[in-house]
């Protein structure tokens, strides 16, 4: 007998799959502009070159059934490379948890192209001098974001892992990895193989990892201000505009002639609960600053108009 929680989970899985299929059917164009996360700050995006690549045309897009077999473990559409710097026994538990997570996600997402995950499990205290007991558990991010134009003519950031599922005949060049993830080995994690039950000071590693990997798959919002306090989408250079050396607006130590706010793929469906207004309408209103203000490209005027939003990183954790 299925429980209410089981039925609820099945309903959620159907919603996710239908949403991805809906996105696929209505994507119209690709803007040849890509972004990568800053290795020192995964919430900051860096413009990267991505030349268009032409593949053999696909006659029909068919998603693999989640019950079919593949070249790695059964029902697992993830190719995982793990860099683990702790004991062999603990690394074995971490690897098994990653494999389990890949199988779980593959069981409810309709995937036709394998997802490449580069992961690490190492001391954040050694790497980042982050040695607090309440430190970061871990993070995951798309290795590359790709600008795509939706059916509403708005460009949004799509994670590479999702773009690959479209099997487009022409697409921007992909990064070798789809997702990058890093987890803190200083944390007291609990694993399914442990001989004792989880206690109040431990964190379930599989649970934490599944949460973060969904961010790596692009399930995040550019409107999330949980960590930074900023309440605008990502601010980045507009790839349509040419660089003007006379412009004094500097972002990431680079001068650009124009900027634009960008949303994530699923922000298309974000609304304000109080009145039903789409968040995308607010994004477009913000972007009128760059099109209607004669001095929109000047740093001073921009700071006057948006005093708290000059640098608005995307939130992925």
TrEMBL record:
This is Sequence orphan. The keyword Signal applies. Keywords: Signal. Residues 1-32 form the signal peptide. The keyword Signal applies.
């Amino acid at each position: 007998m299925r429980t209410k929680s089981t039925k609820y989970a099945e309903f959620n899985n159907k919603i996710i799959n239908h949403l991805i299929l809906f996105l696929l059917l209505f994507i119209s164009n690709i803007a040849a502009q890509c972004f990568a996360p800053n290795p020192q700050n995964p919430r900051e995006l860096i413009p990267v070159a991505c030349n268009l690549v032409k593949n053999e045309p696909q006659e029909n897009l068919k998603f693999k059934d989640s019950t079919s077999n593949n070249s790695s473990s059964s029902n697992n559409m993830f190719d995982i490379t793990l860099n683990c710097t702790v004991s062999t026994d603990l690394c074995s538990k971490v690897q098994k948890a990653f494999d389990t997570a890949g199988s779980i996600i593959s069981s409810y997402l309709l995937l036709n192209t394998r997802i490449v995950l580069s992961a690490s499990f190492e001391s954040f205290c050694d790497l980042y001098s982050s040695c607090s007991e309440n430190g970061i558990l871990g993070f995951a991010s798309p290795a590359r974001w790709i600008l795509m134009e939706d059916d509403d003519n708005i460009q949004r950031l799509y994670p590479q892992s999702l773009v690959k599922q479209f099997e487009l005949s022409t697409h921007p060049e992909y990064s070798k990895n789809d997702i990058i993830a890093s987890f803190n080995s200083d944390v007291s994690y609990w694993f399914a193989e442990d001989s004792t039950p989880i206690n109040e000071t431990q964190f379930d590693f599989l649970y934490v990892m599944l949460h973060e990997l969904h961010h790596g798959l692009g399930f995040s919002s550019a409107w999330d201000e949980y960590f930074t306090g900023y309440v605008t989408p990502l601010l980045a250079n507009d790839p349509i505009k040419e660089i003007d050396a006379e412009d004094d607006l500097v972002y990431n130590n680079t001068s650009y002639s124009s900027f634009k706010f960008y949303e994530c793929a699923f922000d298309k469906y974000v609304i304000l609960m109080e009145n039903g207004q789409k968040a995308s309408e607010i994004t477009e209103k913000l972007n009128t600053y760059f099109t209607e203000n004669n001095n929109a490209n000047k740093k001073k005027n921009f700071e006057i108009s948006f005093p708290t939003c000059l640098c608005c990183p995307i939130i992925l954790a």
